[in-house]
Amino acid sequence: MDRIAEKRLTDWLDSNYRKPLIIRGARQVGKSTLVRQFADHKKLTLHEVNLERHPTLVEVFKTQDTGKILRELEFICGKGPISGEDGLLFLDEIQAAPIAIQTLRYFHEDHPELPVISAGSLLEFTMSKHSFSMPVGRVEYLYLGPLTFEETLAAMEKHVLLNLLKNYQLHEVFPQTAHEQLLELQRAWFLVGGGMPEAIQRFIDTNSLDAVFDVHASIIETYKDDFAKYATQADLLRLHKVFNYVPMAAGEKFKYVHVDPEAQSREISKAVDLLEKAQIIMKACHTDASGLPLGATINRRIFKLFFLDCGLMNSICGVQWIALNELKQKSFVNKGRMAEQFIAQHLAYIGKSNVSPVLTYWLREGRAGNAEIDFVTQLGQSIVPVEVKAGKSGSLKSLQQFVTQKKVLVGVRFDLNMPSYQHVSHALSQIGGSVQVEFDLLSLPLLCDRGTPQDLL
């Protein structure tokens, strides 16, 4: 499956300032496959070592002697000398040998010509248990998220629909038939889970949701097994509770007491932080959005959580029994959460891939009434509020209040309607009178992939 992140790898490989690269991301999002495909496309000899399978290498890495380490790896890989002329060294599951993370700095210093990539899951769990010197300034990061809807369309060979999404301009007519076909595929995406390449591939091969749910069950259990391997016993129970809670409450303002009324908030907070850093859950923090950068006014004590992937989220919620052809007829309790989860998955990775994904939203709570903007993002030098609707209609009251307070010019709404761009003029009622609200509204179908709002704006 072709990934957008491969371009980032190409830029890294061609850079004169290249450093060893650590690919960070949740298990099963395709980190190893990405590296293998990249090496194949670039005609590089891939020297791949899975450190979980070779525990004895820990002692070799402890020597910090890169010559000796490369000699050992050479005979494990069996592809001849490991050199930077046409080779790529890939240290997979690096969390199994934490000392190897520290050694990356010496590869940078001793063999700058050799491209080195490492990848691992739950690195934060490992780093919280071991004391070693991180190679600060000697490594780069690539944060790999789940497959996007566009990447999934490419994997399913829906190239005509994919080209429509990529090349569509707002002044053009969006074909109704294509709109319906894309919505149908998105319904499948909600259950199959675009984030997990194995689940997508199983659906392509079998067209069976039962087969997909088997993949989901395996991935979920793998995550839980990982917790047992890398988390302390004291943290394990709280990790499981947060892991199971987030899919049920995606997009809701987070309250510690809802996870475990008996636990102290700092204990739950630690579990949340670990799962967030491992990219199994995503945190959207409240921002005042009074200016740029948005992070300058973030309140990290007010946040809502999202899960890694729609399909896994729905499996944990227990919707495996729903037949795909019934999705149009049934009304789901969590359909609004699915829509918001879908946008969160894509919006989180819209920025630079070398920094940890960040989501922000806006919340106003008061006696006069609450208002919430699902997401607030920065496009260029503009603050853009993003509203998500699960259907074809919904109130814009919160968006109008935000626009009035923050003096923004453009808002974005995702729903099930056709794409449109319109000017909104409305008299907003307030205490003591009313105020005239004027702004432009970009309305996009939920199925639009990451980058689309920015391209159209």
Topology (SSEs and partners):
Elements: H1 5-14, E1 21-24, H2 31-41, E2 45-50, H3 57-62, H4 66-77, E3 87-92, H5 98-110, E4 116-120, H6 123-129, E5 140-143, H7 149-155, H8 159-167, H9 176-192, H10 197-206, H11 209-230, H12 233-248, H13 256-259, H14 265-277, E6 281-287, E7 298-307, H15 310-317, H16 335-347, E8 359-364, E9 371-373, E10 375-379, E11 382-388, H17 397-406, E12 410-415, E13 420-430, E14 433-445, H18 452-456
Parallel strand pairs: 1-4, 1-5, 2-3, 3-4, 6-8, 11-12, 12-14
Antiparallel strand pairs: 6-7, 8-9, 10-11, 13-14
* Portion in beta strands: 15-25%
- Largest pleated sheet: 5 strands, parallel
Read across the widest sheet, the strand sequence of neighbours is 2-3-4-1-5
Shape: globular
Mean pLDDT: 87
Number of strands: 14
End-to-end gap: 29 Å
Give an account of the 3D structure.
The protein is an alpha/beta fold and 457 residues long. The chain is 42% helix and 20% strand. The chain contains 18 helices and 14 strands. The strands form three sheets. A five-stranded parallel β-sheet has the order 2-3-4-1-5, with helices on both faces. Strands 10-11-12-14-13 form a five-stranded mixed β-sheet. α17 links the parallel β11 (382-388) and β12 (410-415). α12 (233-248) packs across α14 and α12 (233-248) crosses α15 (310-317). The protein starts with a helix and ends with a helix. The model is unreliable at 449-457 (pLDDT under 50).
